Amino acid sequence: MPRPLALSPDRLFPSDPAQREIARRLYKEVAGLPIVSPHGHTDPAWFAGNASFGNAAEFLLHPDHYAFRMLYSQGISLDALGIRNRDANPRESWRLFAQNYHLFRGTPTRMWMDWVFAEAFGFEVQFSGETSDLYYDLITEKLATDAFRPRALYDRYGIEVIATTESPLDTLEHHAVIRDANGRPTGCRRAARDGFRLTRRPMPSARARCMIGTGSR
Question: Which of 6, 57, 141, 176 has its CA 20 to 30 A from that of 192?
Answer without folding.
Answer: 176
